[in-house]
Specification:
Layout (H helix, E strand, L loop, with lengths): L1 H20 L13 H14 L12 H4 L2 H15 L5 H11 L5 E2 L13 E2 L13 H6 L24 H4 L8 H6 L5 H10 L8 E2 H8 L3 H8 L13 E2 L7 E2 L2 E2 L6 H10 L3 E3 L4 E3 L8
Parallel strand pairs: 3-4
Antiparallel strand pairs: 1-2, 5-6, 7-8
Helix pairs in contact: 1-2, 1-4, 2-4, 2-5, 9-10, 10-11
Amino acid sequence: MATLQDDWKLLYSKTLPSLAVSKSPAQKVWPVHLDHCFARIILDNAIGIDGPWTSKLASPAMKNMTSEQLERCIALGNAIADGRENLLDLDAISLELRGKKPKPVANSKRKRGSLGPTISTEEKAPKKRQLSIKSALSNPNSSTLTSTTTTPQSSPPLSSTPPDIERSVPPGNDPTKLITTSNLSSFRQRVLLALCQVPHGRFTTYAALSDHLHSSARAVGNALRNNPFAPRVPCHRVVAANRDLGGFGGSWGKEGKFAGEKVRLLREEGVIVDMGKGRVEGEIWRDFE
């Protein structure tokens, strides 16, 4: 346990900030450079998932993390360090969980099909708020890593309710228009817009979506975890790379709480699902534009 704690502390407080300062090619854009920002991004994506990490874990994080949580955070941090995970997208997801949005970096070129270079709103905070991660994680009253539990009123409601139950998009409305005029982050809008391309009766994967978006399967999966426009924006048409059912309604796999609903929606559209294996059959759709 002590070794894991030491590895985690070294990763977020030294390794990642050093890579950011040196502009390592592992990431096309380093939206943050400070230790507490790296901790916030990793903790939110590895532990918080559908809310800030403080909604799942008591502060200070280091003291209360289990071995499994430490291993997940270290794995994600190493994936950021070697470029297997897109830090920009993970930061956008983390900030949105806190009711914030990343700010564009001035005079930066925007890559076609990408979110565009952004910088964390926390990175732009006044110096008095840029506390060290040691004080942020050890002080429960620190504002640096405090959970923001409410979302802007104009944002679509976030929910773990299965999409077929929520039905927040009235029939006849153009889902793409609802997506582009929403207060969702730019990255989540891109994920949902791409999802709208998947035809009725077909399915794609988190990996195929992430390849199209130049992102990572983890970031795509987190972006789809709360889909306010279901079922018109069909997150049920996304499965794991090996054709396993993947996530749905906040749970994962064929044993998930809402797996039956995902199977029902897929079968109604003509997709073959082997519930014994918890897997869909057929060709993965990848024809994104």
